[in-house]
Amino acid sequence: MIPAAFEYTRASSLQDALGILASDEGAKVIAGGQSLLPLMKLRLAQPARLVDIGRLAELRGVRRLDDGRLSVGALTTYAELADSPAVRYGVVADALPGIGDVQVRNRGTVGGAVAHADPASDLPAALLALDAEVVVQSAAGSRTVPVDGFFQGAFTTALARDEILAAVILPAPRADAGSAYASLEQRASGYPIAGVAAVVVLGAGGLIEWAGVGVTGVSDHPYRAREVEAALVGTTGSPEAVAAAAALVVGDREVNADIHAGREYRAAMAVVHARRAIGAALARVR
Amino acid sequence: MATDVLGAPVKRVEDPRFISGKGRYLDDIKLPGMAHLAILRSPYAHANIRSIDTSAAKAAPGVVAVITGADIPYNPLPMAWPAGGASGIQNNVNTPRALATDSVKWTGEGVAAVVAETAAQAVDALELIQVEWEPLPAVTDAEKALADGAPQLHENAPNNRVFDWQVGDRAATDAAFAGAEVVVSQRLVNHRLIPNPMEVRGDIGWYNPGTDEYTIWMSSQTPHIQRLLLAAFVMGVPEQKIRCISPDVGGAFGSKIYCYADMALSLFASRLVGGRPVKWVETRRESFGSTIHGRDHITYVDVAATRQGEVKGLRVRTLANLGGRLSTIGPGIPTTLYGRILSGPYKIPAVHCEVTGVYTNTTFVDAYRGAGRPEATYVVERAMDLVADELGIDPAEVRRRNFLPPDAFPYDNPSGLLTAVNGSKLYIDSGNYEPAMDKALAMAGYADMAARKAEARARGKLLGVGLSTYIEVCGVAPSKWIGAVGEGWGAAMWESSNIKVHLTGKVVVTMGTQPQGQGHETTFAQIVSHELGVPMEDIVVQHSDTQGTPFGYGSYGSRTSNVGTGAAVKAAAKIRDKARRYAAHMLEANVDDIEVEGAEYRVKGSPDKKKTLQEIAFALDLAFDTPPGMEPYLDETAYHDTDNCTFPFGTHIAVVEVDEETGNTELVRYVAVDDVGKKINPMIVDGQLHGGIAQGVGQALWEEAVYDDDGQLLSGSLLDYALPRAEWLPSFELDETVTPSPVNPLGVKGVGEAGCIASTAAVANAVNDALSPLGIRHLDMPFTAQKVWSAIQSAKGGQA
Q1: Boundary of a domain, candidates A148, A170, A192
Q2: Given B640, B667, B702, which residue is the final one in a domain?
Q3: Mutate: best of A41, A255, A260, partner B, most B CBs <10 A
Q4: In whole angstroms, how large is the CA radius of gyration of chain B?
Q5: pLDDT of B84-135, one tens digit each?
Q6: B662 and B798 part of one domain
Q7: Test the A interface: residue of B27, B279, B662 with most A CBs within 10 Å
Q8: Bond into B478 cis (ω within 30)
Q9: Per-residue confidence (pLDDT) for residue B489, from 0 to 100
């Protein structure tokens, strides 16, 4: 459990980190290190250089933007997120306690989780359901992109090699929305076999006006199940409607299989937990 | 006078150092000039080694030496417990070498090693060793390994058979089945487990060229045995030239009993590099593949019973997967420690058991907490439930009808289960099973379970309740039974203790046996305090170094509380006896007139004429005035060979809820009534039970070693092998009955494995009970969510 040799640079600023990334092909950003270091100790990852952004104050903290949205700095730890206004989103409050253990939640960062793009990471499902955005910085400037589309494959995102994820933007909370996260834990790793996050907005007459459904653990990357969302909108969210919508959660996607869950089981669990998450989200807003 | 602390929940004297990070474990030891060793392990489950090129590794930075099997002149590791011992049963023995030479038999077998200045340099250099492999077909399942056409592992083991062993009365068992009113049969898989002590294994080998002596620090349960085995069987070095030290050991569960290749390797490496100490500490991932595994039985059980549920015959055929080569006592576990207690607490008149040991391309299998007894308990406890299910009788009632009555002890099973090949006998020493079960049933609210099941079903949960009315066997003893011709170990099984009362009246106890977290420094101080009347704080208990402790066989098989305590009690009695004789001299009285109460030695009828043990020790240590023939100093050693094992028992009840939609199973209640005889320290007993129960629950619900068909360990890390977590467990509800053992001088029996022996079967019975409304009769462990969901889908006619 000893990593291969690597160079280490502590970045003095975000611009400094971006400069190193741009100039060194072998450089890899490290923040909390809760995903990268285990991979390095197993020598599954052997970056030539680590650029440590862990002490950059400019990437820390959760703050409310003028329009009510929440900006979550990339270095916000899970524990800090749990102690921030972000837990007003039921979907975030549900997902956080199941992530890692106390030590991981104290060290692991929101930005790290999103940039690492583990196919079974809990938080991306919640961000997808909330229709969140990510702020991406490079030496050339910054851009803001939707989370939907950011995850492209296993451990693969829309981040370019010379970019750093700077913040995650959550939409403004609203009284007519409810959200929840439901997952079945793989007992050894604690990662979800299937995890589904749901956000529903109720409109006039109690009909579902908007729905966001994020899914993790099921496919090679966390995804937004727009088929489920479409099936929910315009319904009353009756148990039958929810079950019918939840049944669409996998669609024709390629489903992951391992010793803990084969394709059929994992797909079935995605459906069950889609139903449970949507049901819980509705219960919170009704 | 010191308060009597025997039986008191005294806080553990070890804990201040353990919980404040001040323990001294193997990896905490840093010696001057120490080099570091890393082992290159086979990526293949079965392969021939064509060549090994170490030249690049030798040239790597910091590398001191690179070693292959061809460099090492030692013998293969010893086989200390063949099935049936020296009774004539053929054991086709293949054990590992310090490093494999021609071929590897499992992924993780060591093939080369690097000694370097730092551990990082050693690991880096491993990547530069080039091995030319010839991969061979592999087999990992015992049943498949015995089949025609299976890959063959060893020339001396046709069809991969290690041994065929049997116990019991075949003719009587056949007769019981011929006349049976009901026969129930089931195939049971007791799957493979991977021990995971908090502290992984490691060694520091040191060869001293000045004295030509070897010292090894090892994270081991058995330093005295390892000295014997390394000297006599592996290295060919005289025993007095080897010293084994086991520092604080952070858990073991059986996995640190054995003579491992790395022990010989670290000593060889130290000699090779001119006498620098050489440290090797395994990684967790290495531990998963290269330290022993446990269990892995496939069993076919037949039960003959009357329509009233009385069991008349038990027939068991078991395939025991022992891995690619044999670990030190691998064959002894699924034979002696399994077949001989298959009748459990029941008066089953006819039992016959056949066991075949099998080689497969997997990590070697040996004793893991419970060691044979959880496997046996699982078979007989599932058998009781299957009989109950078949006959429509409540499982508790079936057990009640089959329990040995309280006047049956000492009990000798008529099938000769406890009779060794040389005729030596063990007896179940004591028991009173029904009160323990009744107490547990009352605690669990067993009578109300139907209502609770209905309530759970309304919530979408299947509730199940399971019983395990187990017995344990504590001891791995006595010598006349376990040794000699009969059962196996080529070794005795006594224990030892030395007690010295120093001039200041302080007491030093040295033990042949040693702890791996059980708290011996506390419990043995409690015993000696009780026996000598000396306050606990004036007593220190030392252990785990072959220099300075009397020979002992170590801690495993729950043997220390039965055998080890006997040695301490005897040594204390010798101290008392000598102190009494010297008190008579000091007080000018007849020795027969000296009364002893606690630490006071008084002249009968003259209460003012008295000496304390401290005064006696002071005078006798100075020895200015000793009577003729009396040696100075209070220093006594005792060896204790128990007459029999002790047999704790009890009833455990598990209540589970299965989520019908997901198959996810939660343990929602756990009740245990255990009878471990008298308790030295009830808090430590509870701790052992809690840990044991959790470990057994882990097997039933979550833990499983999984190999693919090529012999790759897919559950080779804590990301894929699910150990129990506190948050998954309910608060255990413990109670007791107390039936003192007539075997042990303190009436204690032992408790190290009881929880683990009982709980697996209780949970398995509970899950099967939960699934029974769906028509599921038996599902094998572990009850992972996917497996339970698939069974539910199949039962409902789904697609799974």
Answers
A1: A170
A2: B640
A3: A260
A4: 27
A5: 876 788 999 999 999 999 999 999 999 999 999 999 999 999 999 999 999 9
A6: yes
A7: B662
A8: yes
A9: 62
Contacting B with CB below 8 Å, chain A residues are 1-2, 4-5, 42, 184, 186-189, 193, 258-262, 264-265, 268-269, 272
Q: Give start and end residues of each alpha helix (H) in A68-225.
A: 78-82, 90-95, 102-107, 110-116, 122-129
Instruction: Show which of A150, A170, A190 is a domain's final residue.
Output: A170
Indicate if B54 and B203 belong to the same structural domain.
yes
A64 with A166, same domain: the answer is yes
AA letter at B647: F
Judge contact between B493 and B479, C-beta under 8 A: yes
Single-letter residue type at B386: L
Residue B2's pLDDT band (cuts 50, 70, 90): confident
Residue B560 domain boundaries: 494-640
How big is the CA angle at B197 (ends B196 and B201), to the nearest 5 degrees? 100
Query: Is residue B444's pLDDT more than 70?
Result: yes
Q: How far is A59 from chain B (nearest CA, A)?
A: 30
Q: What is the pTM of this model?
A: 0.97
Give yes or no: residues B42 and B124 share one domain: yes
pLDDT in the model for residue B486: 58
β-pairing, B202-208 vs A192-202, is unpaired
Q: Are A62 and A159 contained in the same domain?
A: yes
Distance CA B118, CA B106 (A): 28
Task: Report the distance separating Cα A172 and Cα A65, nearest Å.
Answer: 9
Answer yes or no: is the ipTM higher than 0.90: yes
- The DSSP string of B111-149 is EEEEEESSHHHHHHHHTT-EEEEEE------HHHHHSTT
φ/ψ (deg, to 5) at A42:
-85, 0
Task: Give percent of chain B above pLDDT 70.
Answer: 98
Considering B245, B262, B290, which residue would you say is the last residue of a domain? B290
Answer yes or no: do B120 and A5 touch at CB < 8 A. yes
Higher pLDDT pick, B212 / B417: B212
Q: Which two tokens stand for residue B35?
A: 């080099």
- What is the pLDDT averaged over residues B172-201? 98
Residues B442, B545 within the same domain:
no
Fill in the amino acid letter for A198: A
* A261 contacts B786? CB cut-off 8 A: yes
% of chain A exceeding 90 in pLDDT: 98
For residues B352 and B171, what is the distance between their CA atoms, to the nearest angstrom? Answer: 9
B487: pLDDT strictly greater than 80: no
Residue A166 gets the label, from left (phi > 0), alpha (psi -120 to 50) or beta, of: alpha
pLDDT given at position B424: 81
- Report residue B800's pLDDT band, with 50, 70 and 90 as the boundaries: very low
Q: What is the pLDDT of residues B705-745, one digit of tens each?
A: 999 999 999 999 999 999 999 999 999 999 999 999 999 99
Q: How many other C-beta atoms are found inside a 10 Å radius of the C-beta of residue B405? A: 12
Query: Residue A142 in contact with residue A213, Cβ under 8 Å?
Result: no
Same domain? B608 vs B757: no
User: What's the mean pLDDT in B783-798?
Assistant: 94
A185 beta partners:
A192
Kindly list the residues from chain B whose CB atom is less than 8 angstroms away from the CB atom of residue A121: none
Residues contacting residue A181 through CB under 8 Å, at least 6 positions apart: A90, A91, A92, A94, A95, A122, A125, A126, A129, A195, A196, A197, A198, A277
Q: Same domain, yes or no, for A195 and A131?
A: no
Q: Domain span at residue A77?
A: 57-170
Using alpha carbons only, give the angle B265, B266, B267 rounded to the nearest 5 degrees: 90
